[in-house]
Design a protein that fits this description.
This protein has 493 residues and is an all-alpha fold. It is built from 28 helices and no strands.
């Protein structure tokens, strides 16, 4: 193997992961859903701050403030950098003023789902930055309540993609998961169950209104994890219904229901089955209840069989889900006695995968491979050749309309992982493949006007930059009481 790339990983293996990184472990949740941004906090880096601001400036050449969600992301990142920069001194009035501008940006987002998500990013980020929550809860404003109320505006089946009609209330369920996490971060979780509405039960009630097993499992898993994090798992598991058990049983009906997920590229049947199962296994780890592992069947054996049935390229996506779930369950060495061999098999797929061939299967495979290597302490598997190959791949998406308009999706994943590795310079320096431009400036220049064609795909790039900015808050930043006090019981036994 060629020499490993010159990078600075924030962790050296699974044992270094904090609870947030174990609970919200994969880049999908962060880039696509915008939850758990700012993992792997580091000390403020002026060069990273310059990259983040330059990234937004480059995008601004093609995308104006009429794209309200992107405007919010720019303002949120700038706020995080200002708070984190030791050379800047913000007093209470400065914070209040900036908060007012941010709230104006949140309220301008027309789509209620994305408006709620912007609000959750704001609430979560405010807490992560170590700011006093009082400005969020003054007499003239109650931002958490305003954000939560937006959930009532989210209509079912609002996602316009290849799975149109099979989502049901998947978006609203995902929104509730984000709210729960943000409320927990702020220490306001009691509000969810102590008022006239029990939002935990309302969120659980949405599960039955998600018809496709894939989306019920993937969406439900984060909800169960968030509920367990907040200490309300008895509501979900010990009442009139055991909602987690019911979701596992619903996943078993996948062949009967005939609502398989559609993907941008052809995928094996095993991929559509293993994805929600692995996320549910991580939710089981959060509950600490081992009995779910044998409910209906041996769930670990089922997962192993499905992982083995994946095509090699698909395994690059699912490997990290599998590893983290097993780690949190305390079953990693039992199920993967040769973790090194498994990781080597995943990361080694890069030689046969062209990252510019398509945006989904191949395009995000590379960030997943690099993320897997980082989180398992195997950065020796990531070579300069591998990094150069993916960094230089984005002009290849010009060949097909679908890949071109979805380019921010895989590019956001790459911005995220290279930022985590301290290797983002590669995206902001001129390269021959881009005729001397930087990859970031080239990608930004090839966006459609106001990102009308890319739509919410641009939001992922905003999430990547906001996450990069929130990481600058200092390596000794407090994890937050709700995460600091959480345990994965099965991993301790």
């Amino acid at each position: 193997m060629m020499g490993s790339a010159s990078v600075t990983p924030p962790v050296s293996g699974l044992g270094d992961l904090n609870n947030e990184s174990r609970l919200i472990a994969t880049p999908w949740s962060r880039m696509v859903r915008g939850i758990g941004l700012g993992q792997y906090a580091v000390d403020f880096d002026p060069r990273a701050a310059a990259h983040i601001r330059a990234g937004f400036d480059m995008i601004a050449v093609k995308v104006s403030d009429s794209n309200a969600y992107h405007r919010f992301c720019r303002l949120m990142a700038d706020f995080a950098l200002a708070v984190s920069d030791p050379r800047v001194r913000l007093d209470r009035d400065d914070v209040e003023r900036r908060l007012g501008v941010l709230l104006e940006a949140v309220r301008a987002v027309p789509n209620p789902y994305w408006r709620l998500m912007a609000g959750c990013v704001l609430l979560d980020g405010f807490a992560k930055l170590g700011l006093d929550r009082t400005p969020l809860l003054t007499g003239r404003r109650d931002v958490p309540t305003e954000v939560l109320a937006t959930a009532d505006e989210i209509e079912p089946n609002g996602i316009e993609d290849e799975n149109q009609g099979n989502h049901g209330d998947y978006e609203r369920l995902s929104a509730y998961s984000a709210v729960l996490l943000a409320y927990g971060r702020l220490g306001l979780q009691d509000r969810l169950v102590s008022g006239p509405r029990d939002y935990i039960r309302e969120a659980l009630g949405l599960l039955d209104r998600i018809p496709a097993p894939f989306f019920r499992g993937r969406g439900g898993s984060m909800l169960f994890s968030a509920i367990s994090l907040l200490g309300y798992d008895a509501i979900a598991l010990d009442g009139e219904r055991d909602h987690l058990r019911d979701v596992l049983e619903y996943l078993d009906r996948v062949d009967e229901l005939r609502l398989p997920p559609a993907f941008p590229q052809p995928m094996t049947e095993a991929f559509g089955k293993v994805y929600p199962l692995l996320t549910m296994l991580n939710a089981v780890a959060a509950t600490g209840r081992a009995e779910y592992l044998t409910h209906g069947r041996d769930r670990l054996a089922q997962a192993r069989e499905l992982v083995d049935a994946l095509a090699p390229a698909e395994r690059t996506h699912m490997g990290l889900y599998y590893i983290v779930a097993l780690h949190n369950l305390g079953r990693l060495h039992e199920q993967l006695p040769s973790l090194d061999g498994f990781v080597e098999g995943i990361v080694g797929q890069w030689r046969g995968l062209d990252p510019g061939d398509n945006y989904f299967l191949n395009g995000i495979a590379y960030p997943y491979m690099i993320q897997t290597a980082m989180m398992t302490g195997r950065m020796d598997l990531v070579s300069e050749e591998m990094l150069n190959r993916v960094v230089d791949s984005y002009p290849d998406y010009e060949r097909h309309h679908e890949d071109r308009v979805n380019r921010p999706y895989p590019f956001a994943y790459l911005v995220n992982i290279l930022g985590e590795l301290g290797a983002a310079d590669r995206l902001f320096e001129g390269r021959a493949r881009y005729d001397g431009d930087s990859p970031f400036s080239w990608v930004a220049a090839h966006l459609s006007p106001d990102a009308e064609e890319e739509g919410s795909r641009l939001h992922m790039l905003g999430h990547a930059l906001v996450s990069y900015a929130l990481r600058q808050r200092g390596r000794n930043a407090a994890p937050g009481e709700v995460f600091a006090n959480f345990k994965f019981p099965l991993a301790l036994s």
